[in-house]
Amino acid sequence: MSIDERHLPLYHAFLEQGLESWLARLPEQLARGLDRQRFGDLPAWERAVRRLPALEVQDVHLTQDTVSVEVAMDDASRRQCDNLLKILAPWRKGPYRIGDITIDTEWRSDWKWQRIAPHLSNLTGRRVLDVGGGNGYHGWRMAGAGAGFVLVIDPSPRFYWQFHAMRHFIGDAGANVHFLPVGIEEVPPNLAAFDTVFSMGVLYHRRSPIDHLRELYDTLRPGGELVLETLVVEGDEHQVLVPGERYAQMPNVWFLPSSKALMHWLSRVGFDSPRVVDEADTTLDEQRATEWMTFQSLADFLDPEDPSRTIEGYPAPRRAVVIAQKP
Ligand SMILES: Nc1ncnc2c1ncn2[C@@H]1O[C@H](C[S@+](CC[C@H]([NH3+])C(=O)[O-])CC(=O)[O-])[C@@H](O)[C@H]1O
């Protein structure tokens, strides 16, 4: 299989990071992850990103709540950027700002970062994996917090192109952040390579949650840190909700443990000292429809008579963050 030269920075980074066992799989993984036959809209997203104008960037902010790029734009470039970025909609994870274009995304992903960041081991120089990292919003924030190498993996090709739209403007300031359009199942076994691994908003989508935890364990080097964020229910260590076909309208939700059950699972898998650093109900201000995500959002998925319940009658979304170490 030939190597597409636009992916060269990714290959270089894998070499530099000593990820040789993964490197050999990249051409095939990229080809499959970006297969035009499988994803009909993909050529339009790719064209949109390729047509983004080259503008003079004055500054990039990866440490602020809104990942932003200071850039001077005349009216014509502004309209062009706005139209091209809208081709990539819905924008779910953010917020972002390019010049005076604010991408007000469905999620205030910055709020999740605020809940997590104070509890992390210092990310400076660390090699980080963000599993199911969406369009890379948290990946940029990890780089802003000093990470040496950030790899975001997410099987969504739309998110791949949203990531590259931002990368177009962020440029060298984000040169150590990379995106691979694959799921966790594509990560080579027993990698033991990453200092910190994030899995946020992914566990409840997995049919085998314990296997997911084990896969995450295998990606970490000994002494590495796992940051796990997922939907939970209230209750003791024996409480787990397995919803019916839909939970808050999502069709692919499997296991919602209590945070105590989750810590038990982590210990069983071999993690040391799991601890819950945050647990909170998801508010309607954190996940909502915007100009950049015009479909239904959380407010439509809760019982209008009783917002503490989903429309299916389950407890409304509540999320916990658990941090644990690999011995
Ligand atoms: N097999 C898989 N492997 C990896 N990722 C997957 C897989 N299947 C789906 N995904 C991806 O997991 C992400 C889950 S969203 C969390 C985003 C971010 N982390 C956030 O915390 O805001 C969940 C939410 O918003 O509820 C999506 O981007 C999927 O494409």
UniProtKB/TrEMBL annotation:
Belongs to the class I-like SAM-binding methyltransferase superfamily. CmoB family. Signal peptide: none annotated. It comes from the Bacteria. Its EC number is 2.5.1.-. GO terms for molecular function: methyltransferase activity; transferase activity, transferring alkyl or aryl (other than methyl) groups. Gene3D superfamilies: Vaccinia Virus protein VP39. CDD domains: AdoMet_MTases. It catalyses: carboxy-S-adenosyl-L-methionine + 5-hydroxyuridine(34) in tRNA = 5-carboxymethoxyuridine(34) in tRNA + S-adenosyl-L-homocysteine + H(+). One of its GO terms (biological process) is methylation. This is tRNA U34 carboxymethyltransferase. The keyword Magnesium does not apply. Homotetramer. Keywords: Methyltransferase, Transferase, tRNA processing. Carboxy-S-adenosyl-L-methionine binds at residues 93, 107, 112, 132, 154-156, 184-185, 200, 204, 319. Catalyzes carboxymethyl transfer from carboxy-S-adenosyl-L-methionine (Cx-SAM) to 5-hydroxyuridine (ho5U) to form 5-carboxymethoxyuridine (cmo5U) at position 34 in tRNAs. Pfam families: Methyltransf_9 (PF08003).
